[in-house]
Design brief:
Blueprint lengths: L1 E10 L2 E12 L4 E5 L4 H4 L1 H11 L8 E7 L11 H11 L11 E3 L2 E2 L5 E2 L4 H11 L3 E3 L2 H7 L6 E3 L4 H8 L30 H13 L3 E4 L6 H6 L10 H13 L14 E2 L7 H5 E2 L4 E2 L1 H4 L4 E4 L7 H5 L2 H6 L1 E5 L4 E5 L3 E6 L18 H9 L3 H5 L3 E4 L5 H5 L7 H19 L12 H7 L4 H14 L3 H18 L6 H9 L8
Helix pairs in contact: 2-3, 7-17, 17-20, 19-21, 20-21
The structure holds zinc ion.
């Protein structure tokens, strides 16, 4: 006896349809799953057996072979429980095969036969739509996420028994309906809340406008975290395409919580004790790491030198390529990782170097060791370096509010539009993405700009990479001003925002 059902898995961020073939033959009783199942899928045998029995159906005491096709794709996770159970019920004649045609089944089963949600539902349903499936069956907790893929018929029975009774037409299943999402919490952070800090705020604006990475150095209490958090209030809103992409990432990571497509740009701030897999992605059951959860948004690393150097070094590749490559035993895939890096650090281990009110107790050796924890190549990938000092008493008590996030966001949006138009021939969006070729074609320096840059280059002994970074930042500064050519003023500001921490 043979039957076929359909399930889905995710690989990287994309969903893949899996054909579940079930063959039951009269041999010595056994239960085998073949077709490159990972450990969690092998465990599915025990869950499926118990779920079928405890739902009041017969688990066939014959030789059962389940084949998962295509065989070359490694199947991870527990979402194939449901199509395997349905396939066994069909192959053993307890469910007519016509009843499961055109249906895609996704879900884990509890031993009692309850349906449980699995990560990556949105990607799987989108893959199902592409393959022409009409009906989708999953756990109640997964339905709202699945309904984000419009034009689908979603059913969300609580138990296997409820599903089977529905498929048999005894108690018809009712399609899930979209719940009105709770209103988005009002954004309460605003740049205007930050008193003083004009240079740091300007650096944030430039970082947001050109998608440049930023390092803030300053003593504890200088407001580095408060500043960093406000960058999302000045970044342009995500496009529909970006929002769907980010939602898929959170779905695959099992972090999808709301009923709406994620609209706010991500802001991730992992602690320095994070593991390599936590930051970059991977693990036994591969999951996106923080660099991918920050995709289209911001990755904030506070206390940068406290991160293990090995963890920081692996950041170089995604910072350069804007994707991370995850290597598996028999496959490799990429996750997107296009984020703005904002890093913060103290000037020295005690934090008070250069502070007029506190004495620094560190030795020169300690300061050097502390700063050397951040490698030159990583530092080289950070376009903007600024010092942040603790606000003065007069700044804290000033009654004048600074510029609001909305006003700064307008300038950022204007600068982004200019970049998008100019870089469209190369399918780039922001100045930070430019390579030499685009810089040569789109970054004209006026005469004074040129001579100032030559002077700076010769006196500061800049590396070629630093030279490029200064031009890119100057290009963004000119875009914020709406000026086609880069002037000496723009170059001067870009140089001042590359106040590289001493490496000697
Ligand atoms: Zn110190």
């Amino acid at each position: 006896m043979f039957a076929q059902s359909y399930g889905a898995v995710t690989f990287g961020l994309s969903g893949h349809i899996i054909t579940v073939e079930v063959d039951i033959s009269t041999h010595v009783p056994s239960f085998d799953i073949v077709g490159l199942p990972a450990a969690a899928v092998k465990e599915s045998k025990e869950r499926v057996r118990s779920a079928i029995k405890n739902s009041g159906y017969r688990f066939p005491v014959y030789r059962i072979t389940v084949n998962l096709a295509p065989a070359d794709l490694r199947k991870e996770g527990s979402g194939l429980d449901l199509p395997i159970a349905v396939g066994i019920l069909a192959a053993s004649g307890q469910l007519p095969e016509e009843a499961i045609q055109g249906c895609l089944f996704v879900g884990e089963l509890s031993l009692r036969g309850e349906l449980r949600p699995v990560p990556g539902i949105l990607s799987m349903v989108l893959a199902g739509k592409e393959a022409g499936f009409r009906k989708y069956i999953m756990a109640p907790d997964a339905a709202q996420e699945a309904l984000l893929a419009e034009g689908t018929e979603i059913y969300d029975p609580r138990t296997l028994a409820e599903l089977v009774e529905g498929l048999l037409g005894r108690t018809p299943l009712v399609p899930a309906v979209r719940k009105e999402p709770a209103p988005a919490p009002e954004e309460t952070n605003d740049l205007a809340d930050v008193q003083g800090q004009l240079i740091a705020k300007r650096a944030l604006e430039i970082a947001a406008a050109g998608a440049h990475n930023l390092l803030m150095t300053g003593p504890p209490g200088s407001g580095k975290t408060m500043l960093a958090r406000r960058i999302t209030t000045i970044l342009p809103p995500m496009t529909d395409e970006e929002a769907l992409e980010v939602t898929k990432i959170y779905s695959v990571a099992g972090l999808f919580k709301t009923e709406r497509i994620l609209r706010d740009r991500p802001f991730r701030s992992p602690h320095h004790t994070i593991s390599m897999a936590g930051l970059i992605g991977g693990g036994t059951v591969p999951r996106p790491g923080e660099v991918t959860l920050a995709h289209r948004g911001v990755l904030f690393l506070d206390e940068l030198p406290e991160f293990p150097r090995s963890v920081l070094e692996v950041l170089r590749q995604p910072l350069e390529d804007r994707v991370v490559r995850i290597a598996r035993a028999n496959a490799a895939f990429t996750y997107p990782a296009d984020f703005i890096l904002i890093a913060a650090m103290n000037p020295c281990p005690c934090g008070y170097l250069g502070d007029p009110d506190h004495e620094c107790t560190c030795t020169d050796g300690e300061i050097q060791r502390y700063r050397r924890k951040i490698s030159g190549p990583l530092l080289d990938r950070i376009d903007l370096h600024v010092s942040v000092s603790r606000p003065k008493y007069s700044e804290l008590t000033a009654s004048v509010r600074g510029e609001s996030s909305a006003d700064v966001a307008d300038r950022v949006a204007g600068a982004r539009r200019l970049q998008q138009e100019r870089l469209a021939p190369w399918h780039m969006h922001t100045n930070s993405e430019m390579s030499r070729r685009q810089m040569q074609e789109t970054c004209p320096l006026d005469r004074e700009g040129n001579s100032l840059l030559r002077q700076v280059f010769e006196t500061l002994h800049l590396s070629a990479r630093s030279y490029d970074r200064i031009i890119k930042v100057a290009r963004t500064i000119a875009d914020l001003a709406g000026t086609p050519a880069i002037t000496a003023e723009h170059i001067a500001e870009a140089v001042s925002l590359r106040n590289m921490i001493s490496r000697k």
